[in-house]
Amino acid sequence: MKAYEKKLGRIFQLQFEKGDDFHPILNAFVKEKKIMAGTVFLMGALTQTEMISGFKTMDGYDVDRRSFDDWRELIALGFISWPEEPPPALLPHEIEDWESPSPYVHIHMALSGGPGNNEEVLCGHLNGGTIKGGMTLEIYEHLHI
Prior knowledge:
Layout: E1 6-15, H1 22-33, E2 38-57, E3 60-68, E4 72-81, H2 92-96, E5 104-112, E6 121-131, E7 136-144
Antiparallel strand pairs: 1-7, 2-3, 2-4, 2-6, 2-7, 4-5, 5-6
């Protein structure tokens, strides 16, 4: 096991508005504020959602990409890093725009089954979405000691 001691830096609360495109706005904010590492907590709803789930196999990764065009509620936890290379989860157009290093907000989420489908909950990575309204996100910046 490896352990790293860090110090809590700035804390940001973001309030997304209806129709906001989640990842471009969040990534621009992280870049503008130069948040090099941090933890992200969010809850809210999306009207359009891009999700990735999958697992590692002997041949690499078995990735399942899903898109939902009905509104979904979610709760999620993630982290901020600035990798030199684009992560495998990015789509081809996101890789083309990659500047090394770039902020990457990696988010794991629990997503509702949609309107009238309360029994279904999906888990995976948030890969994009359009805000339904009133989404709150908090960033806790980590500083190296």
